[in-house]
Amino acid sequence: MNIKDHVFFITGGGSGLGEATARMIHAHGGHVAVLDLNEERGKKVSEELGGLYLKADITDEYEVQQAIRQTVEQMGGFHGVINCAGMGMSKRVVGKKGPFPLDIFKKVIDVNLIGSFNVIRLAAEAMSENKTNDEGERGIIINTSSVAAFDGQIGQAAYSASKAGIVGMTLPIARELADFGIRVMTIAPGLFDTPLLGQATEEIRTALGKQIPFPPRLGKPNEFALLTKGIIENPMMNGETIRLDGAIRMAPR
Q1: Cα–Cα dist 42/36, whole Å
Q2: 169 within 8 A of 117, measured Cβ to Cβ
Q3: Which residues pair with 219 in a beta bridge?
Q4: What value does the CA radius of gyration of the chain take, rounded to a whole number of Å?
Q5: Active-site entry in 105, 159, 192, 224
Q6: CA distance 157 to 165
Q7: pTM of the predicted model, to two decimals?
Q8: Do strands 94-95 and 98-99 pair parallel, antiparallel, or not at all (unpaired)?
Q9: How many CA atoms lie within 13 A of 122 on its CB side?
């Protein structure tokens, strides 16, 4: 699928990996609908790119439905979804103050896994109405997992479970949506320079970067965007999860 003249619906598009992807799409002649709960950041990015800003909670069925409806009405539909919205959380199963609070575990699963699926199902329904291109494509969905899905560290039980769920549903959804000409891919980033690491000191960030075999630094959001570009443009890429991590394998802690 070409990026030029196509519309892409990006969750978490106001910062980090989502913002970098939105800017990449705009730079290659595409159009963006930026969904983000952070109104200030979401509006800033969408206005700079001449796109559409949408405020919605990805876990809320009605809000996502309305965001999709608004995108279709104002931008004439959309051809791609990049799911970057999510949250991080680190807590031990048995901590100094007792067991892992179940409500927090549920919250992480709800946002990262169920929220992603909520967007996938509603967006896929909308894209199934698109006309096909020369390859028979109607749309592309790219999800964001994490290397924690494979190398979860101590304290990452909830986060790893949520990201592993995204990996696990990639193939079955890709197989199902193949009937509609909609591809489904997942990217599992390693340690990236995003707002999730934004509160860490420069010393900590440098130390984290040195754990990566090569290049020995934190990943750059535009490198994530570069991979999304390759996935969008290559019709044979479907039903797979790609690690984007500089060959890191996370230690237990």
Answers
A1: 6
A2: yes
A3: 192
A4: 18
A5: 159
A6: 12
A7: 0.95
A8: antiparallel
A9: 22
Q: How many alpha carbons fall within 13 Å on the CB side of residue 29? A: 5
The percentage of the chain sitting over the pLDDT mark of 70, rounded to a whole number, equals 99
Q: Which residues contact 204 (CB under 8 A, 6 or more apart)?
A: none
Residue with tokens 């754990």: 211
Q: What is the mean pLDDT of the chain?
A: 95
pLDDT per residue as tens digits for the range 217-226: 999 999 999 9
Angle between helices 157-177 and 115-127 (to 10 degrees): 20
Q: Which amino acid does the sequence have at 59?
A: T
**How far is the C-alpha of 190 from the C-alpha of 82, rounded, in Å?**
18
Quickly list DSSP for the chain. Answer: ---TT-EEEEETTTSHHHHHHHHHHHHTT-EEEEE-S-HHHHHHHHHHTT-EEE---TT-HHHHHHHHHHHHHHHS--SEEEE---------SEETTEEPPHHHHHHHHIIIIIHHHHHHHHHHHHHTTSPP-TTS--EEEEEE--THHHHPPTT-HHHHHHHHHHHHHHHHHHHHHGGGTEEEEEEEE-SB-SGGGTTS-HHHHHHHHTTSSSS-SPBPHHHHHHHHHHHHH-TT--S-EEEESTT------
C-alpha torsion angle, residues 31, 167, 164, 22 (rounded to 10): -10
pLDDT tens digits along 32-49: 999 999 999 999 999 999
d(CA 124, CA 190): 27
Residue 159 among the catalytic residues: yes
